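We append the chain.
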Amino acid sequence: MNAWSVSEDPLIVLVDDDPSILLAASYVLRGAGLGRVVTLEDSRTLLPMMENHEVTAVVLDLVMPHLSGDELLPRIVQRHPETPVIVMTATDEVSTAVDCMKDGAFDFLVKPADENRFVACVQKALEWRALRRQVGALKRSLLSGRLEHADAFAAIVTASSKMRAVFQYVESIAHTNEPVLITGETGVGKELIAEALHRVSGRSGELVSVNAAGLDDALFADTLFGHKKGAYSGADDSRTGLIAKATRGTLFLDEIGDLGQTSQVKLLRLLQERKYYPLGSDVARVSDARILCATHRDLEAMMAEERFRSDLYFRLQVHRIEIPPLRERPEDIAPLARHFLAEAAQSLGRNEPPELPAGFFALLASGHYPGNVRQLRAMIFDAVVRAGQGELPMDALKKAIRTASGPPLPVVPAPLGDGGGLFRGISGRLPTLKEVERDLIAESLLRSGNNQGVAANFLGISRQALNQRLRKKKEGEEERDEE
């Protein structure tokens, strides 16, 4: 990998034969925290540099000795079409600007450019390049069906195509600097996705995690931004905040739906300006940390109730990863269970997992799992502890699944003449109750591998009740045979 790779901060190259212009422009960009800035007074050195290093954006003067910007621009566009070129020159002529845009310039600025406009222009160029690379990476991933960084997702056990699609999206956005919002129910593995995204990004700093649910507004600012000595009563020493600890890395804010209004404003400013103030300091510090946020709450509903700021919500929506619940990927239950069985046995110092009773995986498949993967793991660990050196206790698992899944969802009656949902597509004679019961029992026994306890769990009745129905069915068949 070359010296400047996609895993590092953006590399912005300023090309101008005037050293004072280079100094002023580089100072503005560094102060805005947009990335690393390299200045070149000799325009002839730009193309060789771009051949050896990955340049994120170029700010180019037109009038220069040896090799003018007019000559350089089309060459850059042809050889490096993913690198946006901003022309910044003293020539204030519409025809010049038009010619530059025709040659492929990303934007055109007239010297001396306004600082805010200059920063905004470079920022848009970086976002444009990141978006192009994201689309390209996603296209390659979807077409090839392969993950380029499969090892980064090794900690996530899955056989689900839905989760694989999540992995592909993570790879496509990993190298951008934009914030990411990770949503999903409690226990689906939002922290693992954040860890995988950080690994794929290749950022040289560390992943710093903080649970925002336990922070009030004052503690949030102190934890993230730090404070100077004497900033408040009891601040006997200076403290470095977590945002500084995440320099060149990733800051993961879990449960951001629990943030107070004041903390939401501070987070929004950090995302927009990339700057923050330690408590007690009037000197802004620039942050280059990538921000990841996660929540199990419905932020749109909270926004409608004015409990979550809409501007923060839409700022976080640049990239959104929604992790499907376990009940929507039942194919993951068996591999996860095997993984947790081995993990539980190892944690208890046993050489191998306990023996599995018949119908074990069918029973697990019947669960609803509102607590998702975390709930399944807890159930497996408890069952392994109860099993000792013997067979896993099915009764305990059945009870855990029934208790955790809660009461069955109510059946909403259809309007008269509209037909029930199960029979909406049936024309002609409706099946009798006996026929429906017979088919349901047969199907539940088939799905459970003929395990009556699991089949009864599918049907929502006790094993004794199922036995009675099977006995009556058998007696009825014997009576018909005698006739």
Remarks:
- The chain has four domains: 11-130, 147-324, 335-405, 430-482.
- Residues 155 and 192 are 7 Å apart (CA to CA).
- The domain at 147-324 is CATH 3.40.50.300 (Rossmann fold).
- The chain has a mean pLDDT of 85.
